[in-house]
Amino acid sequence: MTATRGWRSLVNNMSGLGTTVLIIAGAYAALVLVAYFGQASMLYLPNLPSRALTASPQDIGLLYENIEFLSEDGLRLHGWYIPAAAARGTVLFFHGNAGNISHRLDSIRIFHDLKLAVFIFDYRGYGNSEGRPSERGLQRDALAAWRFLTEARGVAPGQIIVFGRSLGAAVAAWLAMQKPPAALIVESAFTSVPDMAAELYRWLPARWLVRIEHATRDYVARVRCPVLVVHSPQDEIIPFHHGEAIFAAAHAPKEMLRLRGGHNEGFIVSGEHYVRGLDAFVTHSLPQR
Hints:
CATH superfamily: Alpha/Beta hydrolase fold, catalytic domain
CATH architecture: 3-Layer(aba) Sandwich
Number of helices: 11
Largest sheet: 8 strands, mixed
Structural class: alpha/beta
Order of helices and strands: HHEEEHEHEHEHHHEHEHH
Helix content: 40-55%
CATH topology: Rossmann fold
Strand content: 15-25%
Shape: globular
Distance between the termini: 100 Å
């Protein structure tokens, strides 16, 4: 009798353990499916904090033009063109992931003070631009922005500085690989989405799951213009070694500008050091008039 009870207890315990294992395996499989099918919504954050434009260059005393132009696949995109008196070149600005162009006034001011015109726009699904973001979609938007500057505005490629921050650095590097500008600036950039995913989600087979590449390092390795890599060792979102790897992949002439501070405020915390670094790079990269 005692042996029978013991056997039943063992069977019940094993059954309970098996149920627990099945629940854990099911939950893990569900997470894998969410990561695979929902990665675009996890990566692109146009609604954080909001798609609404909350300010304009006029709020910091700058004249600007509202620009609407079409992507390669017919979506209406929105941006701002901010002229500069006696501009020595034009910055084609690819902003970071969260928010929209209205959250980039500090950077617009910096470039304007460096006597550079600025064309900044929102990717599809961001700000006032139509559509939904995707990797290929952002690349199409980049080509449309380049076409607007070079064709509609008549800006020579040799007068364009392509600038990208964070996610925007991947888009900027891809464009510079396709359409050589005067120079490329990649700030606070990741080497690729699979690399970031593998670091953030070590408990998932992230590299197998990721379908979005944004392979900044690979793009930079194929760029044939001067490259400035800007990154902070204190970046808490994209580790500094990503910037170092991108710099190592770039061809000469290339420069590395180290910032202080975190991912979103490093360029502000670094102040004049940042501005002087940009100014020196732009001066060396643009043809003298």
